Amino acid sequence: MSSYRIVLEDLEIRMYLGIHDFEKTAPQRVLICAEIDVDSRSCGKDDIFDYDRVVDFIRAFSMQFIETQEDLVARIHDHILSLGALSATVYSRKPDVFRDCKSIGVSYRGN
After folding, report:
1. In the chain, fewer beta carbons within 10 Å around the N or the C end?
2. The pTM is what?
3. What is the mean pLDDT of each run of 10 residues along the chain (111 residues)?
4. Domain range holding 30?
């Protein structure tokens, strides 16, 4: 068996994310990244991990409300594992929160 790491980088969605009042009234950009570790019997299309299902799951958060980045990344992480991944690291970043900071984010990893 072979081991692969699938890398999803900066999938951008707009959603309501945060505990502050201003974060509940206007959607903001959220960037989602994931590193997904999988085993595969071969490189054939029937044996690879279907990352489209991960992307679709993340896109479904568009225009939804979640209070914390911790909750968001934990939900995504659980979904990835439910699809058969060995382990994953998922992180979110909010690029528009602070003017003097590229982004603020949370990372969650486990198996």
Report:
1. N
2. 0.90
3. 87 94 90 92 69 96 95 97 94 93 91 76
4. 2-110
